[in-house]
Amino acid sequence: MTESPTPSHRRKNPLSRRGVIGAAGAVAAGAALTPAVFAATDSGSDTGTAADSGATPSGTKAETFPATRSDAATGTGPATAPFAASFVAARWSGAATGAGIRFSDGTASAGSWQTLSGGCATVDDGGTALIAAGDATAYELKTPDGASDVRSLAIDTTDGPHRTFRVPSEPSRVRGVPYLPRPAWGADESKRYKDGKVNSPEVYYPLQTITVHHTDTPNDDADPAATVRGIYEYHAVTLDWGDIGYHFLIDEAGTVYEGRYSGDDLVPAFDPDGKLVTAFHTAGYNSGNLGIAFLGTLTDRPPTDAAEKALIRLIKVITRFKGLDPQAKITYVNPVNGVTKDVTTVGGHRDWLQTECPGRTMYDLLDEVRAATAR
Fold first, then answer.
1. Contacts of 304 (CB under 8 A, 6+ apart)
2. Superfamily of domain 35-63+172-374
């Protein structure tokens, strides 16, 4: 969650989202890097000629995605959903560990209790989890002794009524790195709103650090965009963060997804002045901290080669854009409250908080990632 920064009152049309980032011309070598230059599409190299600030979106096409459906329940008694659930999100107050879930049907180990792991998400006063439900329609929770305010949400990301989005006609890129903008994975922008207002208004601070996560969702994901939509529902609605918690996500095929909404300036994660939008991935240390999450669980297996290469290229582009050394030891200073933390420019979630994220295997690879991005 955020560090309660002063809300920004900038309002943007959530449906006029980004398309392909084009280029109107070249700039002289050594020119200052602007956000438009960061977003410029080039031939694919990280060091090729950049484009000037005349970046413009290309055309769009209509594409349909299933609307995310959800059904809420309270307490630990048996709960049913009116649809086959892709995920169940749970939230409770009290001890963070000791909770479990079992499903009555579907393919997610029906009848067996599963221990709930906090995964990547953390909350201040209890525990939370997002669990793959395997199309179950009934489930039961158990929580730690003394737990209260137990809430759950069955989420369907695959079979809801179709919604139409305007999606870029051609691949979107940031400095040669292809990515899927929010419409291209089916982000329902209405979920950023609560009681008619943006739930978490965008605020921006200079980039200081990059933090790597895993989502603690199943590996070998057959529909990663649906998983991104499930995480979005969990973060925006169940945890009341108002948006997905990461700036970028990467699936096993190496596809990069735009996360947290940052504006209509054609640059994912940043505002027109090159400042980073605050997201919700490292509680207490979010401002100025860019979060990138691998889809999957990287505790006992590494990321795929494609996913690791996508991470390295994305970090290389961002650190060069901002003039950061990915291997440097720095003192992060929270611009909201002055709290400090000694970290490496590029690190893992567990460098900040008590968590297994980004998984032992991925965490052990971070030195390799830092070295590769510094080359």
1. 252, 253, 254
2. Peptidoglycan recognition protein-like (3.40.80.10)
